[in-house]
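Thought: the user wants the 3D structure for the chain below. I'll pass the sequence to the structure tool as-is, report back what it returns, then summarize two notable features.
Action: structure_tool
Action Input:
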Amino acid sequence: MSRKGQGQEHMAYHGGKAMEFLMSYKKDLCKWLSMKDAKYIIDKCENILTAKQDKAIGKQKTDAGKISLLLETFIEMEDSKCEEFLKILKEEQTHYPGLQQHFNKRTQASSSPTVYAECNSTVDTRKVTNVRGIKDLDMHVNIQAGSGNPSGMNLSQTTPHAEMVATNHSHIFASEISNCTIDGNLNMSVLQTPAPQCPGPSQPKNMPFSASIASISDKHGFLKSYRTALVSRVKNVKAIVDDLQSGGYHDEMAATVNAQLTPQEMMRKLLDSATSTGAAEALIQALFTHQKDVMDDLNAEKA
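Observation:
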């Protein structure tokens, strides 16, 4: 079995981050640690290595050979030993400039930027690092568009200070992929889909937005009286569920409704779930948004 195959086999058994680090940066570590006083770091490991391992490393003719065997020895040991070795490297990094620079970069990269995004704007700062041998990586983003002033805020006011600011339906994509090997496809596509206007904080939740809704004083009575008509005529149930879910509708209940096979069955489940006054008001508001023609007909019939 080749050395690469051995490394992969140990990775499968142990799967630790310390071992992954040693395998991923073996070439760089060999260079950094052999450029200056290889014996120093080897001596620091005397309590981890066996006498036989220490002797074999010492027999190597060059510093590069000694460090290379040191790294291979730890890669083939259990992950707890790799963790101890990695701890030593971090503690002694000031002795090796290349190693210190590497750890400093990783520390800086781990801190996330401050971001601000108002409603209907997006800031994407996902990071994927040190992932090896995956078939595909899907970082597809699906965003919903809105209209008007989505946040309900005064557009002339000062936006909060941040390193990345997205306002007025803007979208910032700053995803990072580093030190990864991907065997198949990398998907970083962006799809924007239309959506209802996002209710801003200045408008209380479930506030009726039209005279038609306000004219229905008994929301529960309306849904009960026109249950048959709603079940048979409302077709855009999926959009209604999505609208309600974005406003706080329970995910489990939404899943139950979406699991039904026909719009009629979905509408029956939806009507059955509107047991509270707030739920009934939210459902009627969503019905006016997505099936206004049906609701206007029923409302006119009621009058």
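Final Answer: Structure generated. The beta strands are 115-117, 122-124, 127-129, 137-138, 141-145, 164-166, 171-173, 176-178, 186-187, 190-194. The chain is about 50% helix and 10% strand.
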